[in-house]
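I am still getting used to backbone structure tokens and would like to learn alongside you. Please make up or recall a protein chain and show it to me in full. Would you write everything just below, so we can both look at the same thing?
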Amino acid sequence: MNTLPDLLCLSHLRWDFVYQRPQHLMSRAARDRRVYYVEDPVFGEAPARLQVRREGNVTVVQPQLPAGLPVHAAETQTRRQLHDFLNREGVRSPLAWVYTPMQLHLLGGLTTSGVVYDCMDELANFRYAPPQLRAREQQLFACADVVFTGGHRLYEAKIEQHPSVYPFPSSVDVAHFAQARRPLPDPADQAALARRRPEWQLVMLGPVVKIAPEDLPRADNLHYLGMKTYGELPAYLAHWDVALLPFAINAATEFISPTKTPEYLAAGVPVVSTGIRDVIRPYGDLDLARIADGVDAFEAACAAALAEIGTPAGEERRARADRYLSTLSWDRTWGEMRDLIAQAASRRSYAAQGQPFSYVAGHDD
């Protein structure tokens, strides 16, 4: 009989958005327990309700709220509906896994078996971040049993704020991206680029968010192909010569740990990145990726990566990358996290002497 508590994940990211850290971890958690993945609300014309769908052993819950509802009323309504739903599902004392402090109110009055804060980004530094986010993060630190960070730079920023903080940089499903090393058909929207290629074609994959499309740079050899599914990515990478991480260096990118870095390397594609701290360490320091800032340096790094393709130096670099990637996997990451959660649960049980844990969120707006 499975004695593991159900897992209640509170996330700012849609389950059907880019397949990344939350989906990797929650899919693995769902192998031996029920997982309830609660997204941010969607505001529209419909009355307040929960839209629920099953994705295997993951139940995706999306609150639907009428537009114009005051913040406090929206939070109260969502919390009540979520708690009622969990009761109907027979969820008792779930493990709370929190990605965004802005959903902390959903734990108000709920008994849990523990609280995990998986801090994958410094959300307060993002454009349009809610002004109360930092205050709610402090509330989350106060009730969390354990804190994970999405990279080492973020770990450095959070280590003084909680007694149990552990860095877990982005991992990788090596087998999935290694498919790109086999001959795969070139996706139709990318294949045409090669036929009329002047010298370089710059292909951008992914959704356009937090920036107006008209603000994107435009040129004849710049191609925005939009959102692709996780399953489609190896086919695109199979036809790339160099993979880029052209992040701007600013407050929003200071703490990121790009999942794309190990994914590109697993696909066997040379990597060029701007000076993101969690790419520099370890990938730049180990000379697995080229780091370059400024237009001239970035262009030169791309040219050097192209020139190295098929050479002994290029093969040696890829072999070193493969050796490093052999130490990474999302299965391993989840296993290490699960062990740390169990240790935190033991400390809690001893400290609480068997008393149930309950956290009621305060008001800060």
In short: Confidence is low (pLDDT under 50) at residues 350-365. Residues 124 and 130 are 7 Å apart (CA to CA). The domain at 174-325 is CATH 3.40.50.2000 (Rossmann fold).
